[in-house]
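Intended use. Records such as the BTB/POZ and MATH domain-containing protein 4 entry shown here are meant for training and evaluating sequence-to-structure methods. They are not intended to support clinical decisions.
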Amino acid sequence: MSELPTITHVSDTIAVGELAPPTSSRSVTDTVNGSHHFVISGYSLAKGMGVGKHIASDTFTVGGHQWAIYFYPDGKNPEDNSAYVSVFIALASEGTDVRALFELTLIDQSGKEKHKVHSHFDRSLESGPYTLKYRGSMGYKRFFRRALLETSEYLKDDCLKINCTVGVVRSTIECSSLHTIQVPDSDMGTHFGMLLENMEASDVIFNVSGEMFHAHKLVLAARSPVFHTEFLCGHEGDAQEIVVNDMEPKVFKAMLHFIYKDALVEEELEATRTSTTPCISDTLTAKLLSAADRYDLTRLRRLCESHLCKDISINSVAQILALADRYHAAELKSVCLSFAAENLSAVMQSDGFEYLKENCPALQSELLKTVAGCEDDSSSGGGKSKSVWAQLSDGGDTNGRRIRQKT
């Protein structure tokens, strides 16, 4: 009898691996906020343009979308018979629906800061934020009764000022990260700064009004087109000592600090900014702006512009404007012109304006163009331009008063 085959049963075992660590996520909904300042000059001339017709601000960007302020001098609603002015914020860019909140502020120009504010940011809205499509708007048909507005302190020198804040709603997902590696801040400036402080391998000495500064030609050439030309293409390539007589040692030292460390000596700038220095041009920041222009240090020029911008006021704007023009600080010059144009009457009565009249006639012409720029887009005959030109040339302010000359 033959043997039967042996059958072996093998049971499969499924191994249970380790459980993956838990992860988490969180949805966060908030707003990206941005503001725009809209000045409406010549309010009385805008009246009568018709119900439903508006004056638009320049577009501005908030949350990746373009926006504009619409001001209706005769109102937007025909049923109100021009009894109210209307103000709206409109979505000026195409794309998907945008959810947003807004705040409109009519500025009190008396200095009492009793502004008229309409805000949806702190208000509980039943339907939530507004949902806008292209050219959709949000605002008030009855923003202010026109008769009251025209006798209020919101209207000054035939001018209205409106601040608008838009908050674009966004939702983001925050995910947990199990492993993170922190990347330290760049220390390149520290290392190059040590090179300057230790004078290691320096190959040029600057004699600045008798004070010696050791430096490195390659570093200077890499940072400044002027030094690049002098050391790598010009006659200074073999020079061991360079004499600089028309710059103060502290200014040259601050410039070298920037070249090596890509930063300003903030403490020294603040010290001169808050001192009793009678003239803006005598501050370290102004002198550094001159050095930046001389050696074509674009970033240093912009940093100086940013610092000087903080000091713009009625009494200082003329001085800063003259500095910006002299040292080719285009951004700072533009800010000064805009500020002076918006505060023309007060600026014209400052001492600095007398300096502009006597020494910078070309800047006066540029200020005129800034003040009357809106006239270039209309065919109104240029009456406003002539009026402003008369004020700039004879010393009268915007109310027709003569400015008392200092003796």
